[in-house]
Recover the amino acids of this structure.
């Protein structure tokens, strides 16, 4: 009788999946879309692979819709996401069995699958990334290329989660400037480059990580860039700029560092804002059309690379209360300072979103 306050049964090391699902099951825009399009309304006739002979969708969107409906019915305190997991493993075989996985990897693959099932194509053969080398206004170019991308990739997933990145590379020899644009589903912020920018004992903030991400870097002799004008590899300067902010901004803190043979987990504390996060105010980004974001969910990871545990904190979209989702167990709980060292994937929603029609 308390919709949204519901655990997910652990099917054997599936805390990574449960925490990811909790964050998505609390995304109001995604819920609205899945509710409205439940089963067949938004069914894409161009894709027959994911439907049976009656036109009923059988893809991952179908199982997520089913789970969402059960989850928000208010009839259960724990739901078993077994059907969802089986379907997921059919599409992405690495999730078969009882192994522990990366919650961020699942999130990226699941959203991409959902997008592929739901997208409608108006035109085809349009490149999603394009290069411009002239001195035109980059915001205009970015918007034009975004519209082109949308022609081929219209989906609720893109509407909700995707933004656009601009990458500028300048050749150190001939000063040829290459500007490319590509959509992103999440920002993957490294922790290590921040250390060089701000040495000392200062605690990292999400703003510092974002600043470091958009700071220019030199592609040196060890990692040179192929300059199409010089027709050879050259040292170059590269800079990223965020030129379109999504409705829901997913920020991935790179806590897992992979080297040739082993992986390392970084437990550095990162302070992140709960409300009024305005990444568009940070230099190297285009001002945010949504003004600012509020945190709505946080997936955390505690422990080492090979033996860790995932939990999720989510804000109830109707009551505004925070809950800690730990597989089957749910408790009303705000984020605390210990979550600064565990926060792994943050979900920010622009604060113009309204949640009033949830139960209607
Ligand atoms: Zn060059």
């Amino acid at each position: 009788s308390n919709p949204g306050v519901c655990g997910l049964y652990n099917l054997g090391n599936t805390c990574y999946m449960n925490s990811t699902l909790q964050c998505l099951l609390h995304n109001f825009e995604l819920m609205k879309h899945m509710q409205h399009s439940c089963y067949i309304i938004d069914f894409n006739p161009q894709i027959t692979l994911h439907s049976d002979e009656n036109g009923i969708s059988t893809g991952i969107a179908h199982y997520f819709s089913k789970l969402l409906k059960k989850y928000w019915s208010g009839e259960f305190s724990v739901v078993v996401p077994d059907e969802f997991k089986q379907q997921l493993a059919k599409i992405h075989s690495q999730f078969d069995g009882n192994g522990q996985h990366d919650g961020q990897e699942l999130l990226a693959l699941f959203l991409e699958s959902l997008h592929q099932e739901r997208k409608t194509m108006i035109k085809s053969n349009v490149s999603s990334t394009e290069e411009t080398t002239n001195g035109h206004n980059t915001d205009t170019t970015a918007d034009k290329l975004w519209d082109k991308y949308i022609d081929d990739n219209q989906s609720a997933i893109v509407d909700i989660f995707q933004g656009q990145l601009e990458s500028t590379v300048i050749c150190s020899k001939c000063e040829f400037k290459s500007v490319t644009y590509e959509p992103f589903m999440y920002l993957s912020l490294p922790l290590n480059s921040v250390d060089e920018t701000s040495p000392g004992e200062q605690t990292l903030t999400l703003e510092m990580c974002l600043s470091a991400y958009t700071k220019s870097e030199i592609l040196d002799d060890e990692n040179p860039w192929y300059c199409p004008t010089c027709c050879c590899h050259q040292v170059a300067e590269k800079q990223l700029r965020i030129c379109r902010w999504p409705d829901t901004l997913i920020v991935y803190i790179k806590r897992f560092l992979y080297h040739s043979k082993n992986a390392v987990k970084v437990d550095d504390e990162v302070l992140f804002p709960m409300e009024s996060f305005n990444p568009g105010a940070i230099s190297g980004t285009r001002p945010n059309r949504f003004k600012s974001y509020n945190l709505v969910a946080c997936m955390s990871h505690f422990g080492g690379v090979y033996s860790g545990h995932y939990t999720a904190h989510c804000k109830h979209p109707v009551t505004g209360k925070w809950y800690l989702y730990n597989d089957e167990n749910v408790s009303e709980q705000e984020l605390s300072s210990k979550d600064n060292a565990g926060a792994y994937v943050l979900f920010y929603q622009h604060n113009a979103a309204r949640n009033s029609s949830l139960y209607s």
